[in-house]
Amino acid sequence: MLTEVLLFVVTALVAAIVMEQLSFYRKRAWLPGPKSAPPFIGYIVDMVKRPFDFYEEQRRYGDMSWSAIMGRFFLFINDKTVMRRVFNNQDDAFRVQLTLSAPILMGKDNNIVYMNGPPHKALRKMLLPLFTRQALGMYLSIQEKRIREHIANWLDQCRDSSDHIQMQPLIRDLNVQTSYQVFVGPYIKDKGMMDELSQLYYKLNEGFLAVPISLPGTTLWYAVKARVKVVRILTGMVERSREHIMGGGEVRCLLDVWLKAVKVADADEEGKEAAEVTARHNTNEEIAYHVLDFLFASQDASTSSLVWMMQLLNDHPDVREKIIEEQERLRPNQEPLTPDIVDNMTYTFQVVREVLRYRPPVTMVPHVCVKDCQLTEDYKVHEGTIIIPYVWAPQHEDFPDGYSFDPDRWAPERRTEVHSQSFLVFGHGPHVCIGQRYAMNHLTAFAALLTTLVTWTRQKTEEGDKITYLPTIYPADGLMVRMEEFAANPVAVTACA
User: How much is the average pLDDT of 158-183?
Assistant: First the structure.
């Protein structure tokens, strides 16, 4: 009896392996890639242990390649044209995937990332007033104030210790607190509430990267509990903002901008379905969910870019000096930042774009194929395929001398068509980042203030030039620096009211 059971188990196992490998063989067609994949687990160990090397090996296979991870067929895309087809949702065949735990943590029904078609279009249209020039100008003043405050705190830490300080967690705190202040600042009662919201966000972020199992005691379970609490707090803030605005109060944050713009739509050119979705997404709880989405969208990517900004400006002092020269011309007396001043920061803006290109914070944007699709003339994607548009590739391969850091490539006289087609840091198509100007302003403000308020030196470590995934990319040592006040502006750090 035992022999028969073992024979059955072995036979079933062999059959499952054969079926899996045959499925991979059928789906890969002519694609380059590994000759075969380890049964069931595929190349998950390589991807987890050395992610950057893993993705770079896939890039070297060419414009498209295949691999397998945990029994799923993966299609890796390095070509910008094919990427844009996926981002454009060609034939309505592709859906954003994010991490495996994200749908459990954030929910699919009320998360803008997972919406498509008329409901998604209607919701994005409703959000446009949040990112007008006037609104962005108000956010900019809040961003400047928070950046100045945190720089002052970093200086205090350096004065109190002879050691280098690790910037990645400090910049993460800057981003979290800035986002909360921009989005809901007037409705944060005190420092205790800010600290609580920050800690809850960190728990949420841990769940975003966790194993997709939400059982009591697991990381994802704690993250879901944190999400419920954050949404409850934010819902209360939405209610207070609604009362404030309906009572004739002034607009003071993104939430106020939203509530001032809210009108339950009648049926319009988007149709009844879109109008109903617009109305539903204006309830207190739904707005709270979307504010939470904004918090996620504004955190890890911006933190990554600010860390790289600081490291790259240290490594390229000539670039830092050019930013200082521009700032001294535009703000000779440390004038507060305004949209008009930022608009004239031509060189600083070039540096921001080059940091994003050279070190794109989100190197890949996972999608899943929901139905068979003829992606190119000679390759058909099968339903269930996980698609990895590897954004890192065109950011480097499509630009002349793309592996060099060169902000001057964005000067008007050097820009070519390849820039607009290959610069995919903010995505493309219906899900292109709606807050990209907000993010660019934040990076520009940081570069302008940091270079004119402090000087800093990076501690060269063995890990400092390596890239780690968290899941956005960072220097593996978290960027260790020493800083001191910029001699030309010894009292300007907290000068912004």
Answer: 94
Quick check: 105 and 207 in contact, CB under 8 A?
A: yes
Please check whether residue 207 is in contact with residue 222, taking contact to mean a CB–CB distance below 8 angstroms.
Answer: yes
Residue 317: closest CA among 458, 442, 488: 458
Q: What is the pLDDT of residue 311?
A: 97
Cα(376)–Cα(169) distance, integer angstroms? 43
Cα 92-97-101 angle, rounded to 5 deg: 150
- 96, 436 Cβ separation under 8 angstroms: no
Contact call for residues 38 and 4 (beta carbons, < 8 A)? no
Cα separation, 18 vs 99, in Å, equals 28
pLDDT at residue 497, as a whole number? 41
Alpha helices in 40-188 (DSSP H): 44-49, 51-59, 80-87, 102-106, 117-127, 133-160, 167-184
Name the strand (E) or helix (H) holding 74. Answer: strand 72-77
Specify whether the CB–CB gap between 455 and 486 falls below 8 A: yes
Provide the pLDDT for residue 281.
64
Predicted confidence (pLDDT) at residue 359 exceeds the cutoff of 60: yes
DSSP 28: H
In one-letter notation, the amino acid at residue 375 is L
The string over 3-32, giving b where at least 16 C-beta atoms fall within 10 Å of a residue's C-beta and e elsewhere, is: eeeeeeeeeeeeeeeeebeeebeebbeebe
* The two three-digit tokens of residue 22, written as one number: 């045959």
pTM over 0.85: yes
Distances 367 to 28, 195, 476 between C-alpha atoms, Å: 17, 34, 27
